[in-house]
Design brief:
Blueprint (H helix, E strand, L loop, with lengths): L1 H9 L24 E3 L10 E8 L3 E12 L5 E2 L2 E2 L3 E6 L20 E4 L4 E4 L6 E3 L1 H4 L1 E4 L4 E9 L3 E2 L2 E2 L5 E8 L5 E2 L6 E4 L22 E5 L11 H11 L3 E5 L6 H11 L9 E4 L6 E4 L3 E4 L10 E6 L10 E7 L6 H19 L13 E6 L7 H8 L5 H4 L13 E2 L29 E5 L19 H6 L7
Parallel strand pairs: 17-18, 23-24
Antiparallel strand pairs: 1-2, 2-3, 3-11, 4-5, 6-7, 6-14, 7-8, 8-9, 10-11, 12-13, 14-15, 14-16, 18-20, 19-20, 21-22, 22-23, 24-26, 25-26
Length: 479
């Protein structure tokens, strides 16, 4: 009888959705969606707190909370295996098909999404086939440790000619194989009926609305892309349609600043006699290009910032009240949390120095500053917290920290949503292999929002732009 009561209640979990879900690592849009609450277990591994589900005609959306911060996409920390999360999805609501876990005979799992191992068990028509997260179309956020995660799953995905979601009614259960915790509990799962609701995402027009707005683009061009004859025309297409005033490039290891200047002078010529102003950081992969003169830069790590390149840009006095400090960045990648934290601490120390007289840099009070680029935030959330709040971890080497903007409050993290889909990712694996990391937000634009504001922001991925928009902007699907 207990089992029947749970399943009966679960059948009503066709959660109402009043607002469009955006996969951006922020969760206000989930407030009016029913949440299935789970109890506290205090066990090693993941302890689930709640799970919520909704959909539109394009995506299934799942949000879950845990009682402690976890890493969704890696299972080990300091060599210890901590998590092994799986979402069981019975795509035909039939326990006689798919994989039936020993602890729950009510669910026949066609799709088992293994987040920490970064693949999907596909159990239809044959069991135990491993496919890529990209085969299913899975978009999670955030990429840093958190106690909340949201995931979009493409409902129209196919594999080997078959729809992965053939039915309008599914069952879902969340499990961590380390702790043994489930949401809902053993022998109880959520039965979910898809709503007939259309994707309600307003496309972002990429044109600049007013000529005096300053457009900044942060662009990791992937392994010296601006020197790659097979890719340069595609990159030029993107640069031309963005028509930015400032480009902050990364992964330009062997690319010279002269190469970048020649490209921009050719495809986006300026009316002045000097053309584009370009600076590359000494011995690094960072190149900043600006339509306005670069007054000063701090390329040396002894006087600048590790893995970052601050450049002070001279804006026209008749239009702008202050000049502009841009800090182009490419922080350490992968599991190098220690180095990224050091770089975050170093950034805070540099900004606090810039706001106060003395030291290596003095900014006029109220000078806006922007940190942008590939921050590679794929580990502990403390690194992002440090950058935004000024909370330095290594106080012995980098000082006590402090408020970051001119009012000594937090900086603004500008989430740049995609032009036509409700996603904030800025990176995807071009190989799409089993075990590949999924779509993720690795690139950031963070600024002093007490003295400047953002009028528009967006990310561009031509693979997910309509043909009409591609034609309008002279872009190709594979740019």
């Amino acid at each position: 009888m207990f089992k029947l009561v749970i399943l009966f209640l679960a059948s009503y979990f066709s959660f109402s959705q009043n607002t469009q879900i955006n996969i951006d690592g922020q969760f206000d849009d989930w407030e009016n969606i029913f949440s299935f609450e789970d109890e506290f277990n205090d066990s090693q591994g993941v302890d689930f707190k709640s799970i919520s589900i909704t959909n539109d005609d394009e995506f299934l959306y799942i949000k879950f909370e845990t009682f402690e911060e976890i890493d969704l996409l890696d299972k080990e920390f300091n060599g210890e295996e901590l998590y092994d999360i799986e979402i069981f999805i019975d795509t035909d609501n039939d326990a006689q098909t798919g994989f039936v876990p020993a602890y729950n005979e009510n669910i026949g799992c066609e799709l088992g999404i293994m987040f920490n191992q970064r693949y999907v068990w596909y159990n239809e028509p044959n069991p135990d086939v491993q496919i890529s997260l990209y085969d299913v179309g899975i978009f999670p956020a955030p990429t840093v440790t958190s106690d909340q995660f949201e995931i979009a799953i493409a409902l129209k995905s196919e594999y080997d000619g078959s729809l992965l979601f053939p039915n309008s009614e599914i069952k879902i259960q969340l499990r961590d194989w380390i702790s043994g915790d489930n949401a809902p509990n053993i022998n109880s799962e959520i039965i979910y009926n898809f709503n007939s609701k259309y994707l309600d995402y307003q496309p972002i027009n990429i044109n600049k609305d007013y000529p005096n707005l300053i457009r900044l683009t942060a662009y990791n061009v992937l392994n010296n892309g601006l020197d790659d004859n097979n890719r340069i025309d595609k990159l030029k297409n993107i640069l031309q349609v963005l028509d930015s005033d400032i480009f902050a490039f990364s992964e330009c290891y062997q690319t010279s600043q002269e190469t970048v200047k020649n490209i921009l002078d050719n495809i986006l010529p300026l009316s002045n006699s000097e053309g584009w102003f370009v600076k590359k950081k000494d011995g690094d992969d960072l190149i900043l290009a600006s339509k306005f003169p670069i007054i000063q830069d701090w390329p040396d790590e002894s006087s600048g910032i590790k893995k970052m390149h601050p450049c002070l840009i001279n804006l026209p006095d008749d239009i702008y009240a202050k000049d502009l400090l841009i800090i182009n960045s490419h922080m350490s990648c992968c599991d190098n949390d220690i180095a990224r934290q050091e770089q975050a601490d170093d950034f805070v120390n540099f900004i606090l120095d810039a706001k106060n007289p003395g030291g290596i840099i003095d900014l006029d009070e109220g000078t806006p500053f922007i940190l942008c680029g590939d921050l590679n935030l794929v580990g502990l959330s403390q690194q992002l917290k440090t950058i935004l709040t000024g909370e330095i971890i290594n106080t012995e080497d980098y000082g006590l920290g402090g408020g970051m903007n001119w009012l000594n409050n937090e900086l603004k993290d500008q989430v740049c949503m995609h032009t036509e889909l409700p996603f904030s990712y800025t990176w995807r694996d071009i190989n799409y292999d089993v075990g590949s990391y999924p779509y993720g937000r690795l690139d950031y634009i963070i600024f002093s929002d007490d003295v400047i504001s953002s009028q528009k922001s967006f990310s561009v991925d031509t693979e997910f732009i309509s043909q009409q928009s591609l034609n309008t902007n002279n872009l190709n699907n594979d740019d």
